[in-house]
Amino acid sequence: MKKRDELNSEAPEAEQSGFSRRRFMGAAALAGVAGATGIGTSVMSRESFAAAAKEAQNKIHVAPGELDEYYGFWSGGQSGEVRVLGVPSMRELMRIPVFNLDGATGWGMTNESKDVLGHDNKLLNGDSHHPHISMTDGRYDGKYLFINDKANSRVARIRLDIMKCDKITTIPNVQAIHGLRLQKVPKTNYVFCNAEYVIPHPNDGSDFSLENSFTMFNAVDAETMEVAWQVIVDGNLDNTDADFTGKYAASTCYNSEKAGDLAGTMRNDRDWAVVFNVKRIEEAVKNGDFKTLGDSKVPVVDGRGKSPFTRYIPVPKNPHGLNTSPDGKYFIANGKLSPTCTVIAIDKLDDLFDDKIELRDAVVAEPELGLGPLHTTFDGRGNAYTTLFIDSQIAKWNIADAIKHYNGEKVNYLRQKLDVHYQPGHNHASLTETRDADGKWLVVLSKFSKDRFLPVGPLHPENDQLIDISGDEMKLVHDGPAYAEPHDCILVRRDQIKTQKVYKRDDPYFASARAQAEKDGITLEADNKVIRDGNKVRVYMTSVAPMYGMTEFKVKQGDEVTVYVTNQDTIEDVTHGFCMVNHGVQMEISPQQTSSVTFVADKPGVHWYYCNWFCHALHMEMRGRMMVEKA
């Protein structure tokens, strides 16, 4: 058995011989597409690739002290968080805990985070896939970011002014919220989200049959975060997107068979993209034409079969991604098991719902691109970029030419193919979900990194690659290792996000702390006092670097202690912390913020607390004592 270093030393020779994995993947993809379409394509040579990459490096350098042009928001996958990067530098700026526990900020420990997660929350995990930013008239408004939790059927909202999660909603009657997109026009009134797996109703153990199971398409009110309505569908649901009129949304289905085994999900030659008529659904709910399921009060309409609310457009089997072109003309369903993407004309959907045309009449193109097309993004210049999972490539193709080819014209719709490393899933171009798609940068989130980075044991990082798409050719300019496992990302101009430098004292994020302080007669900004209410003790203190307003307090063994800290510093970036030693609690308190944490003082004796966020040259001296009297 050869060592890794020996294998690495042979890599250049292996590539020269033509048997490297990278060359094999590229050659296989080229052969597959050429054989399928009978038309040419473009695969860059090693020399032209290197030259193009070197030229594009100048564009991604962000010098010390300079700022990136874009914010990038990445899902954290099974970490349950959202990550914030600067683009094009690809520097990580922040991590926003959402469905996970986070020791740095105290998320999942503080009372303010429990107000969001639920004080009885027992879910310690999350699986966040699809981050999307609220819009007004089809443009990012920078107000909220929404993210799904597939693991526990939840949807979360992040306030982008403070980069904190402020709402989490559990979707009733369903399991595994996967695909998530937002209404674009007139604004984000709804968060559309797909429940992937079918379940019986009632799901009480009385019936386990798949044939009697179903799943639903869900609409969440973006402001209240309450579920507005649900639509029962045939088959299952995967990814989703919405149009630029506010009238239609669409989702892919990869298991029209409702099978429980792998082979069964591939039995049918075609699955479908299901289109939802949002206006008809709203009208039915308004008129009371709905039912409810179980204990839930959410209106449910039936979109199965020949329903007025849905149309099931046949597409090649097991499709995956569903993407809307930024000109608002097309839904594109990505084939996965088929080498094709299906282009659906949105302007034909009115006639489709009025039964003036057949289901497949809404399809205007079905270009063959390569093996394993998963997701498509756009540059705003009429070009689409599709990830080819099996080929480990990005295919750039022209939508107008694909439509011409579908109509019988001999035209080459493929513009270029570029190797990526390796097995790409989602991709995302700058501003691509909006009317403002600018065609500058493309991020490709590859599932495997293999040999791209220093080895770190059996678990490898993912590989997020940055590609310059501003010219005629795609140019790979950056490899970025990512901890498991980003699924998707979104790029927004930096001027579209307006963040607070310090908290406002009336911020709703710590409204519960203000309410309790008012009941206790406490002025959070000034008082350093202990309030006893039976065996519940509330300790109020201020902090100004480098000291707490209270350096010691006394409680009794067994008391439930809640510590409220209000950071009185008004200078940005002077964040304080609070950590009670040997009690498993700590928290972040940013300038002008109030944070609180509750624990049981179950150990008699002296217990120190200290600031665990560096705030001052005398940071080490910022501490105090809790004295616990023996019961």
TrEMBL record:
Cofactors that this protein relies on: Ca(2+); Cu cation
Residue positions binding Cu cation Z1: H320, H375
Post-translational modification: Predicted to be exported by the Tat system. The position of the signal peptide cleavage has not been experimentally proven.
GO molecular function, one term: nitrous-oxide reductase activity
Region named COX2-like: 535-631
Stated role: Nitrous-oxide reductase is part of a bacterial respiratory system which is activated under anaerobic conditions in the presence of nitrate or nitrous oxide.
Self-association state and partner proteins as the record states: Homodimer.
Protein name in UniProt: Nitrous-oxide reductase
Gene expressing this chain: nosZ
